[in-house]
Every structure is written in structure tokens, then in C-alpha cells.
């Protein structure tokens, strides 16, 4: 249905794509995988008219096409859900679903018509938002699903999903995978990008692996490719030894803790007491709205409890987000567009910006060359692909996420508050980030981590606190700390039949 050949794209001195072809067939899910910065998003942006290629051709049903922009591509049946969320946060759900103009009824915009069209698509993905809710008030996962609904409402023939599940909890990701399969069975051609390789292989008919702008494994039948060979194709010689992700005994624990005493945050936490010692990695789990994320917000000074006390390792209570930063709290969120990076600034400024905040007061600013050098070291440590002088917004999604982490590590924090810290990060870099987090814990830092990816909690945490209705209902550690165990504890009581 869609055939692309010889696509090339250069950004200044960077070669993002170097002669890549791909064929999308009706009724098939074609997976596209590769390391951060391999060129996946560039490829799909070209196919969907978002970016102009420097070379190559695209044919749709045998006829050459050249899209001027995404809107034109959409009119010809090619829809994309891009990696960075593109919701209009100040508009309502309905307004977001019909960006290219609302359906008219007797010449007027008809809300009723919009609701009628949207309903089946929303429910197919398990969404039930208030149609007039402001989209910015919805959780990240719902915003991600909403974008997919928006693409489906265009009734595309080719649907491109660039990391559609990176912010989704497991159930929603499974539901999306099933939906994707159904759409292909109805005759759509789907191109699916994800770093969750097992998920990809379950849903895909074919897989193409990109490395450094080349298709190193083109259109292989998914059933014939094992996970190991997939990872090797992705990472090439740099493939990490299958490192044991499991808890390594750490040298030092029992450092000064983050402590909650009877903390109540209206509508979110009810008299929660907890203690996370220095050297410990404590997970926070729960369904949406269960309160686990309020713990991070309270530690970061972004909400003030109405009752009870939060104490940081240095004994102080965070009074504001800024105060928490100066008290040594690092907050790394997967919602990086919202609060991760200054996209228009060079990488080095981003990476050193937290330290600036802490140092500005005594007047002595470090020299620029020193900052640049420090940023370079920090970025190399995380293997970020991108020049220190590059605009942060020009990095690939996964590399932006690594840069957010580099920024906080640069500040030498005492507490790490992590919320989906490896969202969109490739398997190699994810293992690397986990290793760094463990090292920091071993140095005596407190690590609190929430993740929509339960495997991440199991890999990383010493114990996981499970929240329901604003309270801790269970603590999982050692052999009880498994993905099914977590899922069960999070859902316990919800699905149980009435006695
Ligand atoms: N607008 C841009 N300006 C400059 N360089 C860019 C731009 N967009 C992408 N690049 C570079 O092109 C390369 C490929 O980026 P791309 O976004 O396609 O990677 P990706 O495979 O999608 O990675 P990820 O898994 O991290 O999303 C990267 O080195 C990136 O820094
Ligand atoms: Mg990408």
C-alpha cells in the first residue's frame, strides 16, 4: 500500500537517515525498532508529511506522493500519532479530537455530532473522559490515548504510532495492542514503534530494525526473529551482556531518610506514614488516582499536605518546588515536554541549569567553559547522542529523556524522585540508567520511584508500596515482588465479587 525507498535526511552534520526503505501492507502491523537516535521518528515523520526528506521516494497505491505537510498526508489517509504529545492542553477533549475542523450540522459546529462520532472510538480504547474537560487536566496516559483516538477519527488507511504505549500502564498498553491488531485485521496498514520489544513482537507481523540511519534488518517476519537477535541487531557490537537486573546487595543502607508522618493531601493521601532510608530504592505503585504519585509531589514540594509532616534527609520540610530543589531533591519525570527541558536552549545549559539555581545566590557563577565541560562529561556518562551545543529540542525522544536525568545528576541530589524515568529510553540505555540509580542508592541517596512499567519497579526496587484510595495497602519485597504480584496488589479489592 505504502512504499518508501531510499529516504535520506540530514540535520546539519548529523545523518538521521541514510537511504532507508520500508513497505507497509494493508492488514499488517509493521514494527520499527532501534536505539535512541537511530532514526525511527525521522522515518515516520517523513512518511506522514511532518518532515521533508533530502532524498528518496514515497508511493501510495502505486502512485508517487509528496506531502506538503501532515494535514495533506492525513487527507490522503496517512495518520500519525507522534512521540511527543501534541495535545492542546487548554482545549477540551472534543476540541482535541477534531483538530482539522469539527463536523458541521446545518452549517454549525455540532457538539452532539462530535460526541456521537467520538464515543465508539473512545470506548474501543477504554477511555471515558468528560467531553468538555480541559485536556491539560487529564493524566499523561489518557492524553496519549486521546491522540490515538484523534488519529482514528481521521479514518486513516495507514496508521503510524510512534511509541504509543510509553506512558501507558500495562492494562492500557495491552488493550492498545489488541486494538492495533483489530485495526490491521480490518485492513489498515499499521507502523508501530516501541522500545517494549516483547510487546512489539506480540503485535507485529514484520519488523524492521534501524541502526544509525540504516535498515540493518529490513522487514523480517516477526515470528522468525528472537528477542536476542533483535537486540543484537539494534545495538550492534555494543549489545550489553545480559546483565542481571536483580537487586545487587548494596554496601550502605540506613542513611538519613525521607519520612512521612500522618500525611494527608486532600483528595490524594490519607494519613500516610512511610520511611525511605538513604540507600534504599522504594517503589510507589497504584492504579490511576490511588495516591502513589502524590507522594512524589509532596517530596518535590509541589503540593503541601493539609496535615502531617514530610521530612527530607536534611531534616527540612519542602515548602515549594524550588525549595525542594535547593534541599537536594531531584525530580525526573517521563512527562519531559511538560517539565523536563528548556527545548530551545543548548544541551549544556539544560544539563547545568539545576546547579545554577543552587549557586546563583552567592554571586559566583562558574565559567561557561567549565559548565560546558561538565555537561559533556555528564552526557557521555549516560551515552546521550547529541552535541553539548545542540538545541535540546533537536534530540531524539529517548536522548531527551537521558538529558533530563543528566541534568539532575549534575546537581548531586540527596533524593531522587522518579516518575517513569525511562519512558521512551531504549533497552541498552535503560539498563544503564538503572545501574546509575543503583549506584546512587549505594552512595546513600534516597530513591523513590513510580513507573507505569511494572517490570521497571520489579527490576529496580528493594520494596514497593502499593496504594489504594490514598493509603498504603500492601508492601511487596523479595519473592513477592513480581509483576503479577504487583498487578494483583494494585487491583485487589476492585475486581473481587461482592461477598
Ligand atoms: N530537528 C532536528 N534537528 C537536528 N537533529 C535532529 C532533528 N531531529 C532529529 N535529529 C537527529 O536525528 C537523529 C535521529 O533522530 P530520531 O528522532 O529519528 O531518533 P529515534 O530513532 O526516533 O530515537 P528515540 O528512540 O530516542 O525516539 C538523532 O541523532 C537526532 O538528534
Ligand atoms: Mg523517536
Automatic annotation (TrEMBL):
- Name all ABC transporter domain ranges: 2-237, 253-494
Leader sequence segment: none
Which keywords does this Swiss-Prot/TrEMBL entry list?
Answer: ATP-binding, Cell membrane, Membrane, Nucleotide-binding, Repeat, Sugar transport, Translocase, Transport
Q: Which superkingdom is the protein from?
A: Bacteria
| Keyword field contains Cytoplasm | no
Pfam families reported in the protein's UniProt record: ABC_tran
Q: Per UniProt, what is one GO molecular function of this protein?
A: ATP binding
Task: Check the record and name the InterPro entries matching this protein.
Answer: AAA+_ATPase (IPR003593), ABC_carbohydrate_import_ATPase (IPR050107), ABC_transporter-like_ATP-bd (IPR003439), ABC_transporter-like_CS (IPR017871), P-loop_NTPase (IPR027417)
What SUPFAM superfamilies does the annotation carry? Answer: P-loop containing nucleoside triphosphate hydrolases (SSF52540)
Do you know which SMART domains this protein is assigned to? AAA
Name used for this protein in its record: Sugar ABC transporter ATP-binding protein
Amino acid at each position: 500500500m505504502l512504499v518508501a525507498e531510499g529516504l535520506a535526511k540530514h540535520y546539519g552534520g548529523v545523518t538521521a537517515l541514510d537511504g532507508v526503505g520500508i513497505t507497509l501492507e494493508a492488514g499488517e502491523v509493521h514494527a520499527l525498532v532501534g536505539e535512541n537516535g537511530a532514526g525511527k521518528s525521522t522515518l515516520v515523520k517523513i512518511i506522514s508529511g511532518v518532515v521533508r526528506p533530502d532524498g528518496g521516494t514515497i508511493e501510495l497505491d502505486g502512485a508517487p506522493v509528496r506531502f506538503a505537510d501532515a494535514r495533506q498526508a492525513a487527507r490522503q489517509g496517512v495518520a500519525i500519532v507522534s512521540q511527543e504529545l501534541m495535545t492542546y492542553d487548554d482545549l477540551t477533549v472534543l476540541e482535541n479530537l477534531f483538530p482539522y475542523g469539527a463536523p458541521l450540522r446545518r452549517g454549525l459546529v455540532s457538539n452532539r455530532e462530535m460526541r456521537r462520532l467520538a464515543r465508539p472510538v473512545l470506548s474501543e480504547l477504554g477511555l471515558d473522559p468528560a467531553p468538555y474537560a480541559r485536556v491539560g487536566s487529564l493524566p499523561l496516559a489518557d492524553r496519549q490515548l486521546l491522540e490515538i483516538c484523534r488519529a482514528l477519527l481521521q479514518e486513516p488507511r495507514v496508521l503510524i504510532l510512534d511509541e504509543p504505549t510509553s506512558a501507558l500502564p500495562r492494562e492500557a498498553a495491552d488493550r492498545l495492542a489488541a486494538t492495533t491488531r483489530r485495526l490491521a485485521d480490518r485492513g489498515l496498514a499499521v507502523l508501530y514503534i516501541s522500545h517494549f520489544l516483547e510487546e512489539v513482537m506480540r503485535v507485529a507481523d514484520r519488523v524492521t530494525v534501524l541502526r544509525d540511519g540504516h535498515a540493518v534488518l529490513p522487514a523480517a517476519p516477526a515470528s522468525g526473529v528472537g528477542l536476542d537477535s533483535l537486540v543484537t541487531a539494534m545495538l550492534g557490537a555494543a549489545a550489553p551482556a545480559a546483565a542481571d537486573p536483580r537487586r545487587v546487595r548494596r554496601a550502605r543502607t540506613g542513611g538519613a531518610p525521607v519520612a512521612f508522618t500522618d500525611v494527608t493531601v486532600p483528595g490524594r493521601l490519607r494519613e500516610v506514614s512511610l520511611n525511605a532510608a538513604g540507600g534504599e530504592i522504594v517503589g510507589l505503585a497504584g492504579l490511576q488516582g490511588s495516591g502513589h504519585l502524590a507522594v512524589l509531589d509532596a517530596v518535590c514540594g509541589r503540593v503541601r499536605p493539609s496535615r502531617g509532616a514530610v521530612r527530607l534527609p536534611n531534616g527540612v520540610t519542602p515548602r515549594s518546588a524550588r525549595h525542594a530543589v535547593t534541599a537536594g531533591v531531584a525530580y525526573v519525570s517521563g512527562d519531559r515536554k511538560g517539565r523536563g527541558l528548556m527545548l530551545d536552549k543548548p544541551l549544556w545549559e539544560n544539563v547545568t541549569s539545576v546547579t545554577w539555581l543552587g549557586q546563583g545566590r552567592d554571586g559566583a557563577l562558574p565559567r561557561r567553559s567549565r559548565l560546558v565541560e561538565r555537561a559533556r562529561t555528564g552526557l557521555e556518562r549516560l551515552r546521550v547522542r547529541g552535541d553539548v551545543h545542540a538545541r535540546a529540542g533537536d534530540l531524539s525522544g529517548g536522548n531527551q529523556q537521558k538529558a533530563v536525568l543528566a541534568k539532575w545528576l549534575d546537581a548531586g541530589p540527596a533524593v531522587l524522585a522518579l516518575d517513569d524515568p525511562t519512558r521512551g529510553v531504549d533497552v541498552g540505555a535503560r539498563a544503564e540508567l538503572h545501574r546509575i540509580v543503583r549506584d546512587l542508592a549505594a552512595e546513600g541517596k534516597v530513591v523513590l520511584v513510580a513507573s507505569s512499567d511494572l517490570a521497571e519497579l520489579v527490576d529496580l526496587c528493594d520494596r514497593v508500596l502499593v496504594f489504594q484510595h490514598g493509603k498504603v495497602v500492601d508492601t511487596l519485597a523479595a519473592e513477592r515482588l513480581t509483576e503479577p504480584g504487583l498487578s494483583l496488589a494494585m487491583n485487589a479489592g476492585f475486581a473481587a465479587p461482592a461477598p
